[in-house]
Protein 1
Amino acid sequence: MKEFNEKKIVKGFNEKKIIKGLVIIVICSILLGVLGYVLEYKFGIIKSGDEIAQENNNSSNDKFNINTTKEFSKENIKTINVETVSTDVNIITTKGDKIKINFYGNTNSKKTAPYLKANINGENLDVLIKYPVVISIVSRNVKAKLDIYIPESYKNNLKIDTTSGDAIIGNLKLDKFKFDTTSGDANINVLTANETIFDGTSGEVNVKSLLSKKNEFDTTSGDIKIENITGDILGGSVSGSFKFNYKDFGNNINIDTTSGDVELKLPKKSEFKLDFDSTSGDLKNDFPITITGEADKHEIEGTVGNGNKTIKIDTTSGNATLNAFGE
C-alpha cells in the first residue's frame, strides 16, 4: 500500500510539472506575439514572409520606377543650381522658352528612393536630388538620371554639383559656368562662357571646345583635357594632369601641380614669357627661348618672341611639355 501511494504522489507531481510547462509555453507564445506585433506595426522591423518575398522581387527586378517632370519659365532666372547624388546629369539645349527637368530611373525600395526637389528661390532655380532619411540594413540600388532642357536663349549662370554622378553637356552659351564633382566625370561638347570654374575630386573632365575669357581648374586625382580652349588659365592639381590645346594663343597661364603633368599645345607662331619651376620634373619645349639669368632643367625662365603674356608652370614631381604646331 505504501508503494502504491508513493507512485500516486510521483504521478501527480509529474502531471503538475507538465501542466506548468504548458502554461509557461502558452504565456511565452502570447508574449512573443505581442512583441512581434509591436516590432512590425510600430517600428516596421520584422517583415512578413510575403513582404520579404516582395522586397526580394523588387530588388531583383527594379520594379519601383522614378519619373518626375517639372517645367519653369526662364524669365528672371539668373542662376540654375543643380545638386545631385548618385545621379547622372544631362544638359540639353532646346529651341523653346521653358526649362524642363526630368528625373527618372529605378530603385528596389520606395522607402529609400531619391526624389526631385525643384523650386525658384528669388533669381535662382534650385534643382536638387534628395534622399529620405531612412535607416535600412538592406542595400538599396539606385539607377537614376536627371535631364535638364535649357533654352538656347538662356545666357546666364549654370552651377552643377555632383557626387558619384557624371555630367554630359551638349552646346551651351553662358555668362558663368561652374562644375563641382566628387567621383564624377564631365563630358562637354561646346561650352562658351565669360568665366568657367571646374573643381573635381576623383573625376575627369573632357571638353571638345571651351571658349571662355577666364578659366579656373582645381583637381585632385583627376585629369582635365580640353581639345580646343581660349582664354586665361588658372590651374591647380594634386595627382592630376592638365592637357590644353590652343588654336590661337595670347593668354596668361598659371598652373601649379603636385604629382601631375602639364601639356600645352600652342601655335608655332606664339609669343610669351616662360617661367618654369619644378622640384623633380622636367620641361620639354618646342619653342626657341631666350633664357633670362641662370637656368637648369628644373628651373627655366625666359622669353619666346616679344610676347607680353606669361606661361607660369610650377610642379612637384610633374613634367611640363610645350608642343608647337603649324607654320
Note: Residues 62-165 form one domain.
Protein 2
Amino acid sequence: MNSHGGHVALVTGAGRGIGRAIADAHATAGVRVAYLDHDPALAEEAASAARERGYDVIALSADVADDRAVAEACRRISETLGTIDILVNNAGISPKTGADGKRALAWEMSPDEWRRVLDVNLTGAFNGMRAVVPGMRELGRGRIVSLSSVAGKTFCDIVGIHYAASKAALIGFTKHLAGELGPYGITVNAVAPGRIDTPLVRGTAPEANEAARLATPLRRLGTPEDVANTCLFLTSDSAAFVTGQVCDVAGGWLMT
C-alpha cells in the first residue's frame, strides 16, 4: 500500500480534528475514503472539501456504538466505493464537567456517562471491526488502526477514568485482534496520541493544556497531521510486517 491507490478506507469520527486529518491524508494518498461521523453536517463538510480537491470520497453519519448503523454504513460504502480494506477507529469522546473543562472524579461519575464512553470508544471499534473483517478476509489483506491514547498506558489527571479505561482496553483489543487476523494478511495496530491541538482538547481547562505542553520534551502540543502521518504509515506497504503494536505520537509526553 505504498501509494495507497486502489484501496478503500473507513475513518470514523472523521468530521473534524484528528479523524478529519486522517481521512484527508488517505484521500490525498489516493485512497477512496468514507468520512463517517455522528454529526452528518460535519461529515459532509469534511468530505465536500476533499471532493473539491478532486478526491473520491463520501460522507456518512452513524453512531459507532450502534452495531446495526455501522453495518449499514459499511454496506453502503462497499456498494459505492468498493470493499473496505482500511479501517481507522478514531471516533471517541471524553466528557468533561462544567465550563472549566475538568474531568469527573471516578466516584462522582454517573453510570450513564461511564457506559456511553465505553460504548463509543471501545464498542465502537468492535462494531467497525466486525463489519469490515469479512470483506478483508475475502480479499486476503487489510489494515486496522485504532486510536488509543497515552492516557491508556499511564495515569493522566486530565481525563476521566472512563476515557482511560476505554483507551487501555483498545490496546488489549489491538494485540488480541492482531493475533487472530494475522493469518489472513490483516495487520492491526494502535496509535496513542498525547495532547493534540483539537476541538476536544480545547474544551479542557487551558492551564491543563499548558502544563501538558511544558511537560512534553518537544515543548508543543501535537497536530492532527502528526497523528495522521503515523496512521498513513501503518496502513501502507511500508508497515506490512508491523502488527499488534502501539505507536505513541506524543512528543515524549508521559513516556512509558
Note: The mean pLDDT is 94.
Protein 3
Amino acid sequence: MTGQEQFDRYVDAGVFVAVDLVDLRRQAEGPVIPVVELARILAVDPASVELLDKADEAGFTELANQLGEVFAAIDGDRLDEAAERLNVLLALYPAHPHLAKEFGRWRLHHHPPDLPLVPMWTAICAENIARILAAGEAARLGTCDAQNCNRVYLDESKNASRRYCSTACNNRARSAAYRRRRAS
C-alpha cells in the first residue's frame, strides 16, 4: 500500500470498522456500545449483522478499548507500542486468509471462516491496521486535532495531510484561529 492507493471499503473494512468502534466507544454514554450502533458499523458485511446480538456488545466494546489504545500509541508516535498491541490481538485471533465466494465473486478474507463474530472482527481490524503500519503509512491513522474532540480517523487524502476527523472540526478550528488572529 502506498499513499497513492485508494482505500477500498470492502477490502479495508477492518480499519473503517476500527475507526468507528473507537469513536463510538469514546462518545458512548453507557458501559457498552449498543447493538443497534454495532449493526450500523458492521453493515459493510450483512452476514455479520445477521449474526450480531446483544451478547456481542461487551466483546465489541472491549475490542474498541483495545483498538483505542492502538490509536493512542500511533497518535503519540509510539509505533513500537502500537505494533506490540496489534501483535497481541493477532496472536489471540490470527489472520487465516481464505477465499470465499460472495455474490458470485471470489473475495479474500483474513480470518478463519468459523470464528464467532467478535474474534472474527478482532482479526480483521488488527490485520488491517497492522498492514497500514507495515506499509509505513501510520500517519494515515490519527486523532482529531480539534479542541475538545477525540475522534479518530483514517486519512484517505492523496498527500496524507489530514488533521481533523471531519469538515466540521476543521471549520471550527479554522474559525477559532481566525478569531484569535483578529483579536491580536
Note: The mean pLDDT is 89.
Protein 4
Amino acid sequence: MHNYYKKIGAALLVTFSAFNVYAADLVAGKNRAMVCQGCHGSAGVSSMALFPSLAGQSHSYLEAQLNSFKTGSRSNAMMQPLAKDLSDADIQNLAAYFASLPSKSSGGDTNLAKQGKDKVNMCLGCHGAKLTGQAQVPRLAGQHADYLAKQLHDFKSGERKAGHMNMIAKTLSDEDIKAISAYLGTLE
C-alpha cells in the first residue's frame, strides 16, 4: 500500500508542476506579446481593420501560423522578420497566451451581414458550428471584415496557399466575400 501512495504523490507532483509551467508560459507569453500590441491590440483584439485579432484563437492554430511565418512558408513582410528569431518556447508561450484571452466581436455592417449569414454554411465543417475554429483551423467569428475579405481574396488569387481554402474561395464572387466577411465580423 505504501508504494501506491508514493505513485499517487508522484503523479500529483507532476500534475501540479505542469500547472506551474503552464502559468509561467502564459506570463512569458504575455511579456513576449508586448511587441505584438501595436497591430494585434493590447489584449489580442486588434483595433485595426487589416490586422487579425489573436485573442481566442486556438493554441494549435497560433503555433502553426507563427511557425509558418518563421520558416517563410506563409509570407508576410511584417510577420516574417518578427517570427524568424522566435524560439520554439517563445512560439508556444505566445500561442498559449493569446489562446487564453477572450475574443471579441469587431462588429460590422449589419445589412451586409444579413446577406452573408446564408452563405457561411460551407465554412461550418472546418471552422466549427459557431465559426470559432478548432485545432489548426482559425476562429473566424469576430474578426474584422476587411481582414477576412483580404484573406479570402488572397486564397482566391492563390497568393495565400491552403488547398481547400483556395478551391472554396475561387467559387466566391466579390459580393459573396464582402457579405460573408461582414457576417463573420458581427459574431462573438
Note: Confidence is low (pLDDT under 50) at residues 4-24.
